[in-house]
Amino acid sequence: MNHHARRRQRFARLLKDEKLGAFLVTNPLNALYLTGFTGGSSFVIITSKRTILVTDTRFSIQVAEECPDLETAIRGPNKTTCQLAAEVLEKLGLQTVGVESQHLTIANFDALENFAKSIDFVAKNGLVESLRVIKDESEITAIREAIEYGKRAFKMMQAMLSATDTEKEVADALDSYIRRAGGHGTSFETIVAVGDRSALPHCPPSSRRIAEGDFMLVDWGARGPLYTSDLTRVIRSPFFAERKGRQRVESKLQKIYTVVLQAQRRAIAAVRPGVAAKDVDAATRSYIADAGYGNAFNHGLGHGIGLQVHEGPDIRSTSTDVLEAGMVFTLEPGVYIEGFGGVRLEDNILVTPDGCEVLSSGVPIDF
Ligand code: ZN
Ligand code: ZN
User: Fold this and answer.
1) What is this structure's pTM?
2) Which residues 6+ apart lie within 8 Å of 268 measured at CB?
3) From the CA of 230, how far away is ligand 2's center (Å)?
4) How far, in Å, from the CA of 198 to the mean position of ligand 1?
5) Domains and CATH numbers, the chain
6) Could you report the per-residue pLDDT of 41-51, keeping only the tens digit for each?
């Protein structure tokens, strides 16, 4: 049985627990997760025994290539996907069908109700996502690959830095190195923030030149082809200009960097199955607060990565998630000081049966 069939088998058990005759998957990534079909614009109908991909003629060849064992319902240009999905569901004689409340638009919900009047559509939140949160071996391998592309691209970027480069030029170059390293693209807009601009956790790249600051923060993610990585490093500018106050900047930066690095180590040490995600956040946050930077860590500690760069589990103070082996997420504590700059260190962590593995340990973190 392949990975997708195994996932569908697990999903069928969920359907039984939820007392649903079938489920209509409308989120393209959830459809991909359950079938391996990368085409998008398609729905998946799952019952306890059958899986039907509802798609259109543009994708006939692609479906045959990517998921030859799957049943399909293929529409021509005179029908909408909703209409065909409703017809298939009615033919199956179903009474209760779950739909994805976070992804199905109200217009499509109305259309389904209109086309399949005998069916009771029930909104459900996060059913497929509850499976996606635990990665199987093939997914962990794909995330390792995405990290490797990110790591190689970062090294290329460091080797090619020039004093006249702007933040935007460095970000653009890094994006192209991700592809050159084997990745299929980025998983979000690359952040390059020089000097005090690094105090903005989501700083958009500007025309600031890298020689204008003593350090820079880079937050980047590679995708390759389907799974993502998400990493952040702070590096010294290789183009130090001897300027007034540099020594002071240097020692303050070193101090903050050490606090963030130690905070991240605390987080990593706290990760193991059975631990509440909010407790990992608390351990890190209290360490940063004790070091005198309590208000300067102004975002959650981390987030799951996978097909999406932000998915479950949620590693923050309000999270109700409990860690389980197979979860993969970022740990990214930061300290941001307006007018000075910020330090964030972000790594990608796999929960193992007895603790965790830092999947991104090959990306140098020395400062
Ligand atoms: Zn990031
Ligand atoms: Zn992140």
Assistant:
1) 0.95
2) 331, 347, 349, 356, 358
3) 5
4) 13
5) 3-132 (3.40.350.10), 137-358 (3.90.230.10)
6) 999 999 999 99
